[in-house]
């Protein structure tokens, strides 16, 4: 035995009283649907159409799962807020099919310049060092910049043609009631929500949106809250929604969080920041680089944006007597900036957006409630400083984590109530520790720039890795299984990043069929499918080739796996079997491989895109996947990849029982 190497067009339903005015939503289809049915049944109700809500909704494209998103604002976010996409977030966009559009509009970050006070005691700042903005393990740019409104735009457009997903702007919930007596039955609609049209302008300039506050839980079985929003004469009658699940993606002042009696634990930080997007007229030489500027009077994080703009995060005040951010003026923020950047000048060409805020570093004590019928995602359960650019990224990643679990559950793929709950519980057990780590990191990160040590460049590299999400490792559960007989992975089993609970590292290979190169995460589109990825080694060798054939025959014929790996009628199989070999392509005959590796369908022909080779490509060079993943070319291994691109199990290459065990543990069919 080889040794195991574990290292309906969503309807943008406006308030009719707003439809005639130019609204941020004016380029979206408008249906003047003012008389919705008295009670509507949906599978999933999402409160909030920010980055988290839209990322969650994207999981349900192409399904018959009915999703309703409501947002109290009149249309998509017009400007401002987050900017900065980590490569792992871009992988999510790739899997949603919007990667190319997002990348085309984004601005790449290549270098980080650090500026500090003069060592000779003189006034002003000097450049200390320039660090490449690179995390070698990624093999691609670590971060790109695109403003939140455009990110939301792409995610929104991606769901526009799917009539199972509906969006209603200017709509907010005013009460929620969850009947916990029927939460264990799959097809029940225990969540009842009353919605109301909102005609007041609830768009705000920062994440602390105004929100209902006078809400409370009534008893252990049902919750019922009232939103603080006071209907006015223009409000339409309320609409009753029955849902199987409800998810609060409703931002830092989450209404749903209050209904669920979830409290945020943590602190307000002791500084007030200004954030400004402007076209600068400046003689500062690094104006088109990411810069950390540290002067005696404070620090600035400066980030280049598209359209010749830059964004600056500027701490304006710190200490005990802090001003209310609402009282800060633009001039005061710019005065603080000019003091820090002196002797260089900083005049204002034009300003597209600015805001002021006091950072809260807090995490919810629960991410799900009511037998996993209600969830909180994104800023609704964690807030931190925007300096590390984690807010939008983490919110999208939370949603990505939850989405496939809800999709699997709502498609009836999880066999028992207990298994459904076990799976949905992993949302909290996986994402809450990430949020807690993020707060701890955030505190250190703020200190790192306030008083950099001699190892600043090593520390910043570690920080960059952290913010990219490479250190995230989800704990063992039904969805993350350790090898049989092993309860904890020791350092010897953690050689590479190919480890249960970690994101599958991305790698570049070519398709066996036509030699076209692809990054693997681009190939792993968000279809809700698991992938059994067989790193078969050098299959020009007869032993490795026979092993791959035996595994393929077993998977395609096994009583417990056949129906999940082979295409059934029109439905995509729950599990896609993929092969990554490292033999010369000419020595491999794709069509001679077992059917599970290149299934045939009378409608769509052969599936040629399941077998990959780790070889040189004609134009893009060699991806060296085996080397990067530290997989022995003779030994190989099999990896179960979850629908969100995280590793569910790492097995010996021919451990088909291990594959069966994984799916039995998940209790899916
Ligand atoms: C000034 C500023 C700068 C920032 N800079 C960055 C950055 O550089 N990088 C980064 O990653 N992050 C940054 N962030 C944070 C980032 O904007 C948030 O973390 C991110 O938007 C969170 O996404 P979300 O979907 O969870 O919440 P939100 O974006 O807050 O979306 C919540 C949505 O819910 C809606 N809503 C709220 N209450 C209700 C209700 N009762 N009923 C119906 N709808 C409701 C809101 O209208 C909103 O559309 C910044 C934030 C601010 C304020």
TrEMBL record:
Species name: Podospora pseudopauciseta
Sequence ranges assigned to domain Phenol hydroxylase-like C-terminal dimerisation in this UniProt record: 472-666
Record domain FAD-binding: where: 42-440
Matches recorded under InterPro entries: FAD-bd, FAD/NAD-bd_sf, Phe_hydrox_C_dim_dom, PHOX_C_sf, RIFMO-like, Thioredoxin-like_sf
Pfam families the record matches: FAD_binding_3 (PF01494), Phe_hydrox_dim (PF07976)
Protein name in UniProt: Phenol 2-monooxygenase
PANTHER family: PHENOL 2-MONOOXYGENASE FSQG (PTHR43004:SF16), TRK SYSTEM POTASSIUM UPTAKE PROTEIN (PTHR43004)
Family: Belongs to the PheA/TfdB FAD monooxygenase family.
Gene3D superfamilies, A to Z: 3.40.30.20, D-Amino Acid Oxidase, subunit A, domain 2, FAD/NAD(P)-binding domain
Protein keywords: FAD, Flavoprotein, Oxidoreductase
Residues covered by region (Disordered): 1-21
